[in-house]
């Protein structure tokens, strides 16, 4: 049975680690004789079984002699630090080790052979380091390994055929070459990006290509070896498959062309019937009761009459509408929206004010039992119709599962309407800050981190459209949610629309605005990253950047979090609701805070790209304790 002497040895080992790589970053009360209450340390039966110190700025080389004393470790997580040098050889003494997370450091040298004696390893993540050398066939000893992440290192040579129960595997961004071995061909190409590897799932290896499928006539070839003959056979099979593929491709292609032509013909017909002449609308305008501008009528009550909506939508002010003499315009749909409706349907719909935003007022319109849309009535758009149309067409062309799709738009000189899918769960802002009292369903880490990931993916997609494409108004009320809590970014492209000619300031949300942003109409991608970082901190702290005490004190959310993390125990920053749910997620929450702080760095160059943010959150969710089954 383990004695208190063992615990003393463990304690001494932890203290050695602290003095070697920790410096100030360890917040351990070393007066305590037992290390079991130290942050990141977990004990069982008087022995340290887990050490988790992710993202706490550990630096330097881990000396030998530490892990030789922590032999009962089952989980070791030192990810996202700045550790250097080669891995300590005595890591091989931790024969119980199941989960080893060392990604995101600066470890170098070869992956030590001793690691392959850790036959209980289930998850191994050495990604984002500077490991060199080949991927040893010693990995085949790790017969329980389910996760092997080696991406973003300097590994070279070919990959051995790892016949392991792997479910997660990645070797991207290494100097690997040769063909992908049979047992790893089941993984998608994402697992092998930026390498010189070839073969399934990547493109066929050159040596396979050069083996002729038919013997060349009169060629001076040496007799084929057994291997070559095998290759040849394989090649022959492939050619057969390829031919079948081509034939099927041709048939499908032809069918598609016919289909597209048919759809186009029908669409033309439909569009003709869908185009609503403004005279119809003007006719409706005359039906509006009362002298009040219809927009005002609409916004005074929550529910308002259909005709009021019509007027609000079409003219804003019935008096000015006529004078301006609007040109005949129609509701223009994007993409291949199957359920289309026309402007009349929209005007007839029962509507409800959702709220007033920077760009105008948003309404919920219920067209029928299944069709519910959000209509945004833009204000202050003074740009010429042609320019507006060009810009909105670009917005409508954006297509990503984490963006709120813009379905249609209407424009006339006086009125611009945008029609979006209605997101029934409302905004992240409402979810986080609304109904904090009894009856609220607490938001757990999984939901919060999923929302963070979805929003990051949506924003990353926007940024990938071009270096000058940004959102310009990222905040929690612009992150909308589906029933299953999938996040969708809304309002993209609007700051440019309004910004091009408006003299008003479209961004009220100063709490989200990056310090370098002087003109809220011109927010760079790095400006978006800052705003996204504030949303991340908002997600974890549960504090709204706009109306908290911090603001009264003149401190923004990012600065507040930074000061608390520095001066006090970091748990102070977490939303109490999160802490009450599960403390085992704490280290991931701490990493998320760290990421939020990186995104909100004062200097734009220090902020990560959104693609990197996405990757980090994916890793975080993938290798967090909630994904780690100790019984593996
Ligand atoms: N597609 C939608 N589905 C459901 N609710 C929506 C939709 N679009 C907007 N809303 C909600 O309507 C309200 C007003 O939205 P709007 O975008 O006009 O303003 P905002 O987000 O508060 O500010 P800003 O205009 O600066 O983005 C917000 O509460 C928003 O969450």
**Distinct ligand kinds:** adenosine-5'-triphosphate
**Which spans of ≥5 residues are poorly predicted at pLDDT below 50?**
210-238, 268-328, 500-508, 625-632
Number of distinct helices? 18
What would the average pLDDT be, to the nearest integer? 76
Task: Name the shape in a single word.
Answer: globular
**Strand arrangement in the largest pleated sheet:** 1-2-4-6-8-10-12
Name the structural class: alpha/beta
Radius of gyration: 30 Å
Number of strands: 23
Instruction: Determine the strand fraction and express it as a percent band.
Output: 5-15%
Give the biggest beta sheet: 7 strands, mixed
First-residue to last-residue Cα separation:
24 Å
Helix content range: 25-40%
Structure overview:
It is found in: Membrane. GO terms for molecular function: ATP binding; identical protein binding; protein kinase activity. It comes from Eutrema salsugineum (Saltwater cress). Residues 210-238, 268-328, 500-508 and 625-632 have low confidence and may be disordered. Helices cover 35% and strands 15% of the residues. The relative contact order is 0.06. The protein is an alpha/beta fold and 632 residues long. Helix 11 packs antiparallel against helix 13 (525-541) and helix 13 packs antiparallel against helix 17. The longest helix is centred in the middle third of the chain and has 49 residues, at 226-274. It has 18 helices and 23 strands. Bound molecules: adenosine-5'-triphosphate. Adenosine-5'-triphosphate is lined by residues 354-355, 357-359, 362, 374, 376, 404, 420, 422-423, 426-427, 473, 477-478, 480, 490-491.
């Amino acid at each position: 049975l383990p004695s208190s002497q063992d615990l003393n040895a463990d304690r001494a080992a932890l203290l050695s680690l602290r003095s070697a790589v920790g410096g100030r970053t360890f917040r351990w009360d070393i007066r305590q004789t037992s290390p079991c209450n130290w942050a990141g340390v977990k004990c069982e039966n008087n022995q340290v079984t887990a050490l988790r110190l992710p993202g706490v700025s550990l630096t330097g080389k881990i000396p030998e002699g530490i892990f030789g004393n922590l032999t009962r470790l089952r989980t070791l997580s030192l990810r996202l630090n700045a550790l250097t040098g080669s891995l300590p050889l005595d890591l091989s003494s931790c024969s119980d080790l199941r989960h080893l997370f060392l990604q995101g450091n600066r470890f170098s040298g070869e992956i030590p052979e001793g690691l392959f004696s850790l036959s209980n390893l289930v998850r191994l993540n050495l990604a984002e380091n500077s490991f060199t050398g080949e991927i040893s066939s010693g990995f085949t000893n790790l017969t329980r390994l389910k996760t092997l992440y080696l991406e973003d290192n300097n590994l070279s040579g070919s990959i051995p055929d790892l016949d392991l129960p792997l479910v997660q595997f990645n070797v991207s961004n290494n100097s690997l070459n040769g063909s992908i071995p049979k047992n790893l061909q089941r993984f998608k190409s994402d697992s092998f990006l930026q390498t010189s590897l070839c073969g399934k799932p990547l493109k066929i290896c050159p040596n396979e290509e050069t083996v002729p499928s038919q013997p060349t006539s009169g060629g001076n070839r040496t007799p084929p070896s057994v291997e070559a003959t095998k290759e040849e056979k394989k090649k022959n099979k492939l050619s057969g498959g390829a031919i079948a593929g081509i034939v099927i491709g041709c048939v499908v292609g032809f069918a598609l062309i016919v289909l597209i032509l048919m759809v186009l013909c029908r669409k033309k017909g439909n569009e003709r019937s869908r185009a609503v002449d403004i005279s119809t609308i003007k006719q409706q305008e005359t039906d509006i009761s009362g002298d009040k501008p219809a927009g005002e009528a609409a916004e005074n009550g929550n529910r308002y009459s259909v005709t009021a909506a019509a007027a609000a939508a079409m003219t804003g002010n019935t008096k000015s509408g006529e004078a301006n003499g609007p040109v005949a315009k129609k509701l223009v749909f994007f993409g291949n929206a199957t359920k289309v409706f026309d402007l009349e349907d929209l005007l007839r719909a029962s509507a409800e004010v959702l709220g007033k935003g920077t760009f105008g007022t948003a309404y919920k319109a219920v067209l029928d039992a299944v069709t519910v849309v959000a209509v945004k009535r833009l204000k202050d758009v003074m740009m010429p119709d042609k320019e507006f149309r060009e810009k909105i067409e670009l917005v409508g062309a954006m297509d990503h599962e984490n963006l709120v799709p813009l379905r249609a738009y209407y424009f006339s000189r006086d009125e611009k309407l945008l029609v979006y899918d209605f997101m029934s769960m409302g905004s992240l802002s409402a979810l986080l800050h609304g109904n904090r009292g009894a009856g609220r369903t607490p938001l757990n880490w999984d939901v919060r981190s999923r929302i963070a990931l979805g929003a990051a993916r949506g924003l990353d997609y926007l940024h990938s459209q071009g270096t000058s494409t940004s959102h310009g108004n990222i905040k929690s009320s612009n992150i909308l949610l589906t029933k299953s809590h999938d996040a969708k970014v809304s309002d993209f492209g609007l700051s440019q629309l309004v910004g091009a000619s408006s003299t008003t300031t479209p961004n009220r949300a100063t709490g989200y605005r990056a310090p370098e942003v002087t003109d809220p109409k011109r927010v760079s991608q790095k400006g978006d990253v800052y705003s996204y970082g504030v949303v991340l901190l908002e997600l974890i702290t549960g504090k709204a950047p706009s109306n908290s005490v911090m603001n009264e004190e003149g401190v923004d959310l990012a600065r507040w979090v930074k000061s608390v993390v520095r001066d006090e125990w970091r748990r102070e920053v977490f939303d109490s609701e999160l802490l009450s749910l599960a403390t085992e997620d704490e280290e991931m929450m701490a990493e998320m805070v760290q990421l939020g702080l990186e995104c909100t760095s004062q200097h734009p160059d220090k902020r990560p790209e959104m693609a990197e943010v996405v990757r980090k959150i994916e890793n975080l969710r993938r290798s967090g304790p909630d994904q780690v089954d100790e019984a593996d």
